[in-house]
Design goal:
Hypothetical Protein Mth938, Chain: A
């Protein structure tokens, strides 16, 4: 099996109500929102949860709001699934700041204030030199680069092979959009307050660099694949230089994802509101595995990977009834999540694979019929479970809960089952 990367979304992923269920159900996430409000001396959490939406979408609010929600998701994941660590992290534009916190470069309170300043500076730069951005779909990079040079705009984001974002002054941007349409491209103007990731952001980038120079950065605990070089940054100084540079230069997302794939990443966990990055990653490499983590339901349903693509999901319930028998103590449910490799090769679920399950001391381990068909459970494993006082039950998963979605919303979630192969 390949490595895992955590990726974090940028501006545009915000939506009204984001983070509310995290705040209500996860103590770790609630602390993130409370720390955010204290650090900013402003109830940003209430703006996330209740709006008004127009205010939430303003750059100065949207950027810290997305970052806070993403970190709340990350902390909730760590709370329920400890020890789940990526080999690389990356973020798209604003998301790069979230990656700093995930990699231990900055404390959350320092980073959320920095992001608020970034949003303020970008908004001010956009007011001084009005500009905008547009997604161009269907033109290759060399053709679009030539077009941009002709009219005086810049490539701001290389998102995927067929989606590139351009940025520039209003008049030049309008001209570029018309030229792109005339060449058969689909053009989508973006709702932003300025020409981000272009030279029109120079004043903002200069002031941001001054602010960054006054902050204490640590070397990252996990390498961060940065936007402008699509290479890993491993020192505090590299990251400081990247952040100011990024504001007025191109986000090379396609190249960043390709770097991670080329260096062993097969699964991308998008942590934060929306699923924009997952869609882009699939367009970059259809074989990449993507998972979205944006709320408590998706956190509870998080699959854990082990050995050549085997995915086992386990959930805890306090009370289930199967074929008329009531299980009133904690019960673990093991569901199917197994790729075709296992259908061909098979896998025996050995006693040593069950150490974490046994440590949870459930009354029963309920194995979904799909998983049972693909994972062999030998006699020694059955005897081991029996010796630990754990009943093995093979049943269709829908007998243990009303629906898969209800299962994902369960308030009590089991530790992951990690298989050793």
């Amino acid at each position: 099996m390949g490595d895992i990367a955590f990726v974090f979304p940028g501006q545009g992923s915000q939506k009204l109500g984001m983070g509310l269920d995290l705040y209500q159900d996860s103590p770790a996430a609630r602390e993130v929102f409370e720390e955010c409000d204290r650090a900013l001396d402003f109830p940003l959490s209430q703006l996330c949860f209740q709006g008004p939406e127009e205010e939430l979408c303003q750059t100065i609010h949207a950027q810290p709001a997305i970052m806070a929600t993403s970190i709340a998701c990350l902390r909730a994941v760590s709370e329920l699934h400890s020890g789940f660590q990526p080999s690389l992290v990356a973020g798209h534009s604003l998301g790069e700041y979230t990656a700093l916190v995930a990699a231990g470069v900055l404390e959350f309170s320092d980073c959320i204030r920095l992001v608020q300043e970034r949003g303020r500076l970008m908004h001010q730069a956009g007011a001084r030199q009005p500009g905008g951005m547009a997604a161009i779909i269907g033109l290759d990079e060399p053709s679009l680069a030539k077009l941009c040079q002709e009219v005086g705009v810049e490539i701001a984001n290389i998102n995927s092979p067929n989606q590139i974002v351009i940025s520039g002054a209003v008049e030049a941007l309008n001209q570029a959009m018309e030229l792109a349409r005339s060449q058969g491209a689909r053009v989508v103007p973006l709702e932003v307050s300025g020409a981000f990731h272009s030279q029109l952001m120079k004043s903002a980038a200069d002031e941001l660099a001054r602010i960054i120079s006054e902050l204490h950065f640590r070397d990252p605990e996990i390498p961060i694949v940065v936007n402008t070089t699509a290479q890993p940054a491993t020192t505090a100084q590299e990251i400081k230089e990247e952040l100011a540079h990024q504001l007025r230069h191109c986000v090379r997302w396609r190249h960043s994802v390709q770097y991670m794939i080329d260096h062993g990443v097969s699964t991308f966990i998008e942590i934060g509101p929306g699923s924009v990055l997952s869609g882009l990653i699939k367009r970059i490499d259809k074989g990449a595995q993507t998972v979205n983590i944006s709320d408590m339901s998706s956190i509870r349903a998080l699959s854990f990977w082990a050995g050549d693509g085997l995915m086992i999901e386990s959930y805890r319930f306090g009370h289930v009834v199967i074929d008329g028998k009531e299980y009133s103590n904690d019960v673990l449910i093991l569901r199917q999540g197994v790729k075709d490799w296992w259908r061909r090769q098979g896998h025996e679920l050995c006693p040593e694979d069950l150490d974490e399950i046994v440590s949870e001391r459930p009354q029963a381990l309920i194995v979904g019929t799909g998983a049972y068909g693909l994972v062999q459970i030998p006699a020694e494993t059955r005897q081991y479970l029996e010796s630990q006082g754990i009943e093995l039950v093979v049943a269709a998963t829908d007998k243990a809960c009303d629906s898969y979605n209800q299962l994902c919303r369960s308030q009590r979630v089991a530790a992951a089952l990690h298989l050793t192969c």
